[in-house]
């Protein structure tokens, strides 16, 4: 027990505990990842690094392009640098990606102790590491596969090593400091610059005497730091072809720093100083009231710490640490990402900040918990002094125990309450994901191709982050967009094919779930292909209006007085014909060279109200005739939900609603 009295042991216990907590949060709260779909980018990149790849070369580039990957002449690379991905890859080598999150959390907490110990003392360092562990911004962002906390790990490693070298004159830790900030720069250049600036100013100030040991020590830090800059430029040169063009610039040239017109993927806005100020005030308000340990109470204690330390007189090392408050706050005014993460500024519940906090300001946690620890100890001393002055000597000890318990209970309750909100919000999103991913729980598609919908545009892993391809596109389940499906079939001729569809709006962040279905997909080829469609018609219906289309031409028919609609689509080399009993006429449209033929049947109750059955058949002409894939089936009560959010899911509809379609080869025309 005596060893537990040592601050270094206490700090180690906090760090290990933090790693375990983050691992548990990652596993329980984020099993399918978050509403920020960048996680899949880093995990895909980590898998690539483990396979020794900087580029993806899928068999059909436009069908396998993951979210935030740059297309470059048939090869794909991510818009992010590979530092965070490399960290996650280490975890996979040790047994799983989530192990990396636990190690990063443990390292960050340990380095928090070392940094604050260097700036103040050991006891303050232990308290600071506890405050870091209790901060919702740290807990949530350390539990997900994004680059913010891994970069903070390198930043705070730089701070700890730099302050140690400054105190001891040790050239080894000076070199380590340079290596850490170099890696931080490689990971997130602007973030590293903002964090390092106060320490760089401190280093310049220390050179004023032109003392050789100081020149050597600072020179080593600068040398290794610049090596990180060189590594960054070399990576840029390899992937983008130009050392000064970062991958994110290759992806979206106007997605950068500074004011003016900014844009990415068709979204753009005028980023003005006024807009930036409004957004950053909002973010800092959320930071101070929701994402710091114990919310407003934690912020208040940090202010007490700043006041106490200032009153005592800040030394240059403490001033450097406090300077991070200024550089991170002011520097983020120049970055338009701070606006984007808020979504609609008028809606306080909108944007990624609701679930992940103001992650561009995550480095503010370092000075916040450092001065927060100073504040906690100052308050403790003040309370002790007050009790000793006003309580009889014989009762001082029990009185201090009682006051400590009360204050600890208040602080602990406030900390738990602050962390509970974001964790609860993310857990609610996960519940929606659980239902959406339910068909994949039994891992029954290991040697199959699964076609996925694209509710957010033509990307993989956006939103389906949990459904990622092996970097070689040849191991396990292969996931493809529903574009150029026949090219995918040709690339994987020996696999089974499936189609993932769902019913409902994809909005897990609004607490909405979808009804999913994985549909077996067959390929039928011949001189002609037939699709037999059957659909039940409610007795109240007066009319069924049918439309056949190849997206260019339309043909129509009607049916009255039928209980079951039986329609045959005959897809020939030149024409696709619709016929069936009860239809007032046969309708035809041209068979497309490659594309869908769609049948819509609006079931009309006589007042214009009703619903629509929809059958979409992917077809392609071949030298031998045509080939087709099993149709995609929909039942639309709202036309706006057709074509992606109105899948026909057996068992999910009211009685009397049934739809089926089967493909077969037609031997004679």
Report on this model:
- By secondary structure, the chain is an alpha+beta fold.
- The longest helix is centred in the middle third of the chain and has 41 residues, at 396-436.
- The mean pLDDT is 93.
- It starts with 6 loop residues before the first helix and ends with a strand.
- The protein contains 19 helices and 20 strands.
- The strands form five sheets. Strands 9, 11, 12, 16, 17, 18 and 19 form a seven-stranded antiparallel β-sheet that branches. A five-stranded antiparallel β-sheet has the order 15-14-13-10-20, with no helix packed on it. It has a four-stranded mixed β-sheet with strand order 6-5-7-8, with helices on one face.
- The protein is elongated.
Please tag this protein with its features.
5-stranded antiparallel β-sheet, 669 residues, 19 helices, elongated, alpha+beta, 7-stranded antiparallel β-sheet
**CA-based shape:** elongated
Rg result: 31 Å
Q: Helix- and strand-based class?
A: alpha+beta
Terminus-to-terminus distance = 89 Å
The percent of residues in helical segments reads: 40-55%
What is the tally of beta strands?
20
Mean pLDDT, as a whole number?
93
How large is the share of residues in beta strands?
Answer: 15-25%
Largest sheet: 7 strands, antiparallel
């Amino acid at each position: 027990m005596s060893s537990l009295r040592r601050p270094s042991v206490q700090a180690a216990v906090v760090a290990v505990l933090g790693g375990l907590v983050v691992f548990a949060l990652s596993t329980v709260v984020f099993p399918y990842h978050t509403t920020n779909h960048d996680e899949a980018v880093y995990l895909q990149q980590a898998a690539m690094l483990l396979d020794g790849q900087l580029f993806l070369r899928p068999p059909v580039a436009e069908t396998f392009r993951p979210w935030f990957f740059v297309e470059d002449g048939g090869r794909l690379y991510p818009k992010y640098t590979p530092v965070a991905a490399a960290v996650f890859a280490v975890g996979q080598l040790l047994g799983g990606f989530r192990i990396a999150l636990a190690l990063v959390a443990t390292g960050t907490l340990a380095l928090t102790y070392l940094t604050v110990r260097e700036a103040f003392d050991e006891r303050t360092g232990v308290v600071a590491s506890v405050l870091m562990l209790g901060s919702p911004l740290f807990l949530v962002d350390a539990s997900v596969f994004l680059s913010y906390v891994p970069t903070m790990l390198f930043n705070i490693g730089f701070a700890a090593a730099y302050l140690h070298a400054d105190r001891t004159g040790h050239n080894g830790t000076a070199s380590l400091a340079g290596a850490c900030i170099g890696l931080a720069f490689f990971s997130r250049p602007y973030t590293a610059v903002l964090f390092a600036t106060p320490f760089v100013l401190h280093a310049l100030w220390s050179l004023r005497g032109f003392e050789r040991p100081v020149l050597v020590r600072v020179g080593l830090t600068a040398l290794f730091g610049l090596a990180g800059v060189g590594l960054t430029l070399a990576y840029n040169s390899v992937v983008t072809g130009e050392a000064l063009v970062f991958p994110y610039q290759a992806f979206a040239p106007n997605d950068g720093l500074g004011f003016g017109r900014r844009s990415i993927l068709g979204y753009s806005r005028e980023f003005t100083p006024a807009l930036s100020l409004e957004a950053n005030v909002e973010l800092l308000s959320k930071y101070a009231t929701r994402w710091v340990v114990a919310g407003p109470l934690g912020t208040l204690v940090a202010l007490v710490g700043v006041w106490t330390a200032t009153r005592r007189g800040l030394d240059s090392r403490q001033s450097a640490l406090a300077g991070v408050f200024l550089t991170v706050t002011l520097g983020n005014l120049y970055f338009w990402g701070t606006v984007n993460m808020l979504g609609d500024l008028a809606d306080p519940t909108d944007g990624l900040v609701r679930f992940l906090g103001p992650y561009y300001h995550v480095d503010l946690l370092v000075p916040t918990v450092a001065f927060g620890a100073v504040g906690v100890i100052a308050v403790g001393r003040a309370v002790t002094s007050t009790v000793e002055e006003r309580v009889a000597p014989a009762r001082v000890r029990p009185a201090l125990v009682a006051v400590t318990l009360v204050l600890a209970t208040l602080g602990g309750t406030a900390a738990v309450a602050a962390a509970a909100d974001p964790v609860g919000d993310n857990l609610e999103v996960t519940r929606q994901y659980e239902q959406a991913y339910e068909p994949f729980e039994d891992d029954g598609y290991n040697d199959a191709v699964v076609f996925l919908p694209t509710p957010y545009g033509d990307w993989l892993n956006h939103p389906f982050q949990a459904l990622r391809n092996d970097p070689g596109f040849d191991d396990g389940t292969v996931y493809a967009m529903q574009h150029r499906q026949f090219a995918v079939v040709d690339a994987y001729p020996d696999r089974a094919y499936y189609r993932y569809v769902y019913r409902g709006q994809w909005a897990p962040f609004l607490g909405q779930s979808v009804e999913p279905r994985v549909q077996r997909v067959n390929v039928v080829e011949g001189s002609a292909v037939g699709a037999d469609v059957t659909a039940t018609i409610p007795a109240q219906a007066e009319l069924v209006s049918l439309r056949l289309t190849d997206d260019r031409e339309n043909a129509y028919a009607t049916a009255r007085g039928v209980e079951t609609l039986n329609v045959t689509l005959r897809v020939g080399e030149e024409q696709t014909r619709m016929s069936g009993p009860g239809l007032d006429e046969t309708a035809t449209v041209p068979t497309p060279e490659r594309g869908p033929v769609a049948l819509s049947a609006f079931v009309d109750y006589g007042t214009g109200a009703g619903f629509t059955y929809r059958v979409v058949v992917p077809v392609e002409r071949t030298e031998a005739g045509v080939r087709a894939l099993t149709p995609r089936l929909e039942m639309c009560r709202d036309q706006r939900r057709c074509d992606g959010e109105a899948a026909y899911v057996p068992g999910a509809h009211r009685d009397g609603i049934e739809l089926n379609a089967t493909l077969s080869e037609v031997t004679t025309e």
